[in-house]
Amino acid sequence: MKILITLPRGEVFDRHFPPHIIRRLEKLGSIVYNETGRQLTEEEMKEKLADVQIVLTHWGTKQITGEVLDHAPELKIMAHCAGTVAHIASEAFYERGIPVLSANSVMAEYVAESVLAYMLSALHCVPEANREMHEGRWNKPRGQVKPLLGAEIGLIGLGTVGRNLLRLLRPFRCRVYVYDPYLPEGALDEWEFAESCSFEQAMSRGIVSVHAAQTPETYHMISAKALSMIPDGGLFVNTSRGSLVDTEALIEEMKTGRISAALDVYEKEGPGGVPEALYGISRNLLLQPHAAALAVSWQMTDQIIDDLERFLRGENLRLQVPLSQYRLMTQE
After folding, report:
1. Residue 168: CB partners within 8 Å, gap ≥ 6?
2. Mind listing the pLDDT tens digit for each residue in 176-193?
3. Which residues of the chain fall below pLDDT 50?
4. Helix (H), strand (E) at residue 233
5. How many angstroms separate the Cα of 258 from the Cα of each of 74, 125, 231?
6. Phi, psi (rounded to 5 degrees) for 274
7. How far apart are CA 115 and CA 161, in angstroms?
8. Which domains does the chain have, with CATH numbers?
């Protein structure tokens, strides 16, 4: 059994494929590494996959199209050791009956924890109080701190992160209103404190958190009009994708000081990507560098290997992505 790891060696590789993970993989077969120091090109992928049975993909892997699969006659399964596979797998896998695995559900639990942390930090004015203390001022943010306990929360999209967030919110006695046009019947039955609602109803809560996938139909779904629905003093949280929010509209709303926000994602990311105007808003805006999933690394690969072992034993898979889910996942 030959196993290709597409992720080039480096800091990310070391975190997601530490020695104990490599030892587990070596028990399944011989490993083929990407020694180029960068992502494999399409032609390199074709060459590498020629006699490989298992391919492990990761962030940055180029999409494996039907043309690439034409050069992978022995490939039995694709396993993505991170989140969405919408931009890495292709429908050709499903047409050929090659299972697609993703650690999306593993990562989602950790992202949900970060969402909870962002909510609590923003509601309790933690960044502002910390800044004041470091500047030598004992200024308590009286009248600004708000509880999460008993709050009304609107979720825009549910998805895997949203479902994990519901589990974490249970002890806080919140009432949660979920807008998701793809929500299947009975999806909220286990959450007695949650109910399905319209987009307008979800946006009208004191806390609004975005968990929809990035698709053409969700582009700028959080517009100036949508932001205006959040009540005065409300909190807006986005850990989904920056393109779901009209950034200019959000900047204008933030400048008023009417609501606060916690952002982990942006329309353009990396150095020079985030608008300077956002950096200039500090009192009511918590900014994070797309870091909600940083607490999880090798744990995703570990559970992927669990599923690969099930696959080789002919057992049911826990991380398999059906075609219906694949089509709704975030497109990078």
Report:
1. 112, 113, 116
2. 999 999 998 999 999 999
3. none
4. none
5. 58, 15, 8
6. -75, 130
7. 9
8. 2-105+295-326 (3.40.50.720), 146-283 (3.40.50.720)
